[in-house]
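Attaching the record inline, Q. Sequence:
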Amino acid sequence: MSIASLRRSARATVSGLPQGFWWLWLSTLVNRTGAFVLTFLSLYLTIELGHSAWFAGLVVALHGLGGVAGSPLGGVLTDRWGRRPTMITMHLAAASCAAALAFVTSAWGVALVVLLMGVAMQAVRPSINATISDMVPADDVRRAFALNYWALNLGFAVASIAGGAAAFLGYRTLFLVDAVATTLCAVIVFLRLPETRPERAAAKGGGKPADERVSMLDVLRDAPFRTLVLLNLLVCVVFTAPWIGLPLTMAEQGLPPSSYGMVIAVNGIVIVGFQLLVNKVTERRSPVVLLTVSSLLFAVGTGATALAGSSVAFAATVVVWTVGEMVHVPTNAAATARLAPEHARGRYQGVMGMSWAVAGFVAPILAGAIVDGPGSDVLWAGTFTIGALAAVGYTLRLRRALGEEEPETEAGTTTGAGAGAVIGEDVSPVAAKAPTRPQVQAQAQEKPSRASSS
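Structure, as predicted:
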């Protein structure tokens, strides 16, 4: 491929998206560029404050636990309060927590601040994802999520390098810089990002607006979406396991900690260097196929860790599951947006985000226990099995839900399956209350003025 063709490909990847998206993209980049707390928290707790490694692990787990509560909270606020105020408030809350860590030194004080920070950081994500779903044309949603994910990883890579170089300034200084960066992110949202929440539709007979009639329980009763969440939880467990199990496995092989640092750095390098290319290759592909393939890549990449015996071999396994990560994350976010009615996008994204948070809390504990007990080979055999099961689930259970299979009627004919369609005999209760995204898109195709958003 020539340089000119690469330039054309890159230009096509970033073209055609609304200006508001790029302000949101910039806010993500700024936020993650200053994300020093989680990167250096364990070192701060053990080296600076003198706590044990066990306590450091507990505090990091509390951050994940806060996310379990923060994600659905952010989803509800996103739909009821609005995307923009939720983003601003939660960014400022996270900035306050980062600043507090520079001054709080008591063990349980730090634990409480980190827990609240987990709530705030996870609560902002449903509003970001809902905003992308609101403002970006349907055909470009997955590309937009991929670009935003690229910004997140680009910022994180910069933060890791810059934070390591600036560590001599002290951990507290890094936490204050984190607070400033997160505040700047909130300022960008306040000054440049419009509110995108759809106008609330009044119910017939003067009842409550439609968005107020959708509870979190209604979302969980949506069978197709519930299946997507459970499958994503399986994938998230597989994805999270290497962050705990990989360094322990490499240590068993007699490799030094510095080797792990170089191996895991491959993850960020591959994402920053190749996310746009992967997005171009997977563009317009079936979401079910992409989710299936990404699950298999997670399964093979983590499972092969049991066979690795050198730093190069371990790095190769990281490349495999990292490609799976680059395919899975934007595709899963776009599938969530596709299944969600407009007035409940925040809640749907909040429930989906909760699956990531639950995996982030549970998987490290399980991985450590398995390595200490049955051994690392059992861990990697388990991740391979779980990833393969997820791939089968995506293939068999989501094709109708995502409108890729025409369900048969009683007369033997077929009907168009949209977001929130049936899986087996289950019908989404939320979809029954409002038009689903593909239904709205189908109606829009009949109008020339909306033909660009299929």
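The radius of gyration is 22 Å. The longest helix spans residues 223-252.

More tomorrow.
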